[in-house]
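Input/output pair, single chain:
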Amino acid sequence: MSVPPAPPLLLASTSPQRSAILHQLRIPFDVQAPSYEERDDAGRDPVELVREHARGKAHSVAREPDDRPVLGGTVFGKPADAGEAEAMLERLSGATHEVVSGLCLVTPAWEELEHDVTRVTFRALTPRDLAQYVSTGEWEGRAGAYAIQGVGAALVEQIEGDYLNVVGLPAVLLVRLLATRFPGVYNVG
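Output:
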């Protein structure tokens, strides 16, 4: 007897990194751009903010009668321009920072709203390191102004936690939620 295929998740994101991670995990999904608009109010708690954004994105695409699980997520802190990117990277130089991601998995019957934190330590960066990295343009649209899966890997000295969380999706958290809510359905649990 063959097992029916898992229904695809509905990913409330157009992020190529999130899509790549879901492909890597062999979790079937469809993409729908969320209609939710993120507002990053200064002074707000980053955990509260990423959870709010993840929930808003997921709910903005959840529609009945489609009962597929909807996945919404977000990360905190993207630079607006090259100067802001360089300033962000300069603050991260020689220091440890936390990458905070929100994740919301929702169906018409329930909602799971979680977050994950990964600690990343940068090596001490010289002005030349900063200028070379910013000139690559890889910082554009990236939380923290770097892409750990690209040239930005050379900036990092150490990582504690889920590497894929830094790339763009808290995969360990997602797999745990899917294994709990859908044991055996998405090739997990």
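The radius of gyration is 17 Å. Helices lie at 16-24, 46-61, 82-92, 127-136, 163-167, 171-181.
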